[in-house]
Write a structure and sequence with these properties.
9 strands; alpha/beta; homodimer
Chain lengths: 336, 336
């Protein structure tokens, strides 16, 4: 929490995106019993995997176990997680007519299970560990809604954006209004910080980001309770960091493709940063892992406002012991 | 050719990566009769699709129809193109022992079909249209050899790179030596310019690129006949452009994630550049397509040494008429 506000800290805090995930045996045990969506919708289990991961790893924050696509269901999308294939949306938005069928999220009752998971996690979690809530950013959610799943090229998403900016903006505005309600409800439920995941925004040119995305993301970030620090994250965003920072957020996520010092300079030192180890570095031997972590700490230069994290989520085959070792290394190497 | 050397030109030249490809009915007709690898290995057909695409589109260069993975077969890899799934290598290189089994490419006889296709294309092509030869760069080829196909995360490739730099460097050196022979043979066969595709290098941090990749790519580029202009291309390379330019090449490819003016500045105006329209812009209406093309020409600022191209290959569903319209627009808007 102090790092989010760029206050001095005794050591660099660290947590890891997707820290409660498939690489962890405790998580796989739970998933052997329930499907992914069922896990998200069962607050006691979501709280359990959230707390277990944070305690097992010795990290400095927990992030609520949930999925960025959960708010799509109450907006009228038919969401399914297929085994091995990732999410599929059976009624993707391809036209203005589709967009007009989207449901305005009037209240967040349909996502009560996430709020309940936050409450239960907050009660179970060590009191000095902050709990992070999160949501997908408008562009990243729109890309799933339009493509009907993941994409390599974003042809459908960009085609709608280029060819029917009215429908595009209507969809992005509707998503943005839903996100403001959802994120503020997470804070009320007990989330102490928030992260906005614009994971796939790096597929856009800077001009397209500025024109089609930035105003919507800004409206989400402007709508969030001012007391709550927000981490604004994306991947492949080297050219977008300045614009992403302009859109808002107290902490800007940087991936490993950008050196942390260069990225922070682009963002401006009046904001905190989060990052930026390549998730694959966790497959390297200890010596190499240590060297890579050290390089990042050196690039941060001991400046207040650095939260150590990966540049993207932990990969499924990652050895747990390396994750634990990384947390220890970062604590040790950054202790003043 | 003149743009490669940064000499003044009457209009901005344009060609498009993967211009002979699945989006084109004439190409699909040929593929209805032969498989992908068979097409690559039949010089008369490879020449036919190469020439047809260049003439149909009215572009200013042809690029030989081939695949970057073709040199992997004579190096001992068992390559197959699966319908819909892309390339699969049945014996990927995962360890030093695997790497030691790689076959040094002593001479390029095993790739004679590419050289013969170049000869036939050069004879059939309008004499004022230059013919571009090409190869994959060491990192991108290594990534296929190690992963056994395409990858989202490059876990195996980077793991080998981090954990056994001896095996990594041996593999990269062997690939580099093969590439020098292969590219020079293409020039001898009639290719007037060359392109080195480091398509996936954008997955690396700048430090990793500098340490594990740059020396090898440099050795390839240093080994090529000095008279032949070389285009050095990658995607997601915003942070790498300076290093890529340092590795070599007369023309540096820029993808759409970087503004052309910013990219060119980073590369240095003593080099030519190629790019950088988002391939998805070809799915937009004409007005929008024109606007996007105009923006790129404006960013190039009429400076000699800009070759118009996409930021990556043409996508399979692209409407042919939009590609033709783009070529006309670029010629018209850039005519002095």
């Amino acid at each position: 929490m102090r790092a989010c506000r760029r206050e001095p800290v005794p050591f660099t805090p660290i947590w890891l995106m997707r820290q409660a995930g498939r690489y962890m045996p405790e998580y796989r045990d739970v998933r052997a019993r329930v499907g992914f969506l069922e896990l998200c919708k069962t607050p006691s289990l979501a709280a359990e995997v959230t707390v277990t991961a944070a305690e097992r790893l010795g990290v400095d924050a927990a992030i609520i176990f949930a999925d960025i696509l959960l708010p799509l269901e109450p907006m009228g999308l038919d969401l399914e997680f297929m085994k091995g294939d990732g999410p599929v949306i059976h009624n993707p938005m391809r036209s203005a007519a589709d967009v007009h069928r989207l449901v305005e999220l009037e209240e967040v009752g349909a996502l009560e299970f996430v709020l309940e998971a936050i409450k239960q996690t907050r009660r179970a979690l060590r009191s000095d560990l902050p709990l992070i809530g999160f949501a997908g950013a408008p562009f990243t959610l729109a890309s799933y809604m339009v493509e009907g799943g993941g994409s390599k090229t974003y042809v459908q998403t960009k085609s709608l954006m280029y060819n029917d900016s009215g429908a595009w903006n209507a969809m992005m505005s509707l998503i943005s209004r839903a996100l403001v309600k959802y994120l503020n409800a997470q804070v009320e439920a007990g989330a102490q910080a928030l992260q906005l995941f614009d994971s796939w925004v790096g597929c856009l040119s800077p001009d397209d980001y500025q024109q089609y995305v930035l105003p919507h993301t800004r409206s989400v970030l402007a709508g969030i309770n001012r007391e709550t620090p927000v981490i604004h994250f994306g991947t492949g965003t080297g050219e977008l960091l300045r614009l992403i920072s302009e859109a808002g957020g107290n902490v800007i996520g940087i991936d490993w493709r950008v050196r942390l010092d260069n990225g922070w300079e682009r963002i401006g030192h009046d904001k905190a940063v989060m990052g930026n180890l390549d998730p694959v570095a966790l497959f390297a031997n200890r010596k190499h892992l240590r060297l890579q972590a050290k390089t990042i700490l050196e690039q941060a230069g001991g400046r207040p406002g650095h939260i150590f994290n990966l540049g993207h989520g932990i990969l499924p085959e990652t050895p747990v012991e390396n994750v634990i070792a990384l947390v220890e290394m970062v604590h040790e190497m950054s202790t003043q």
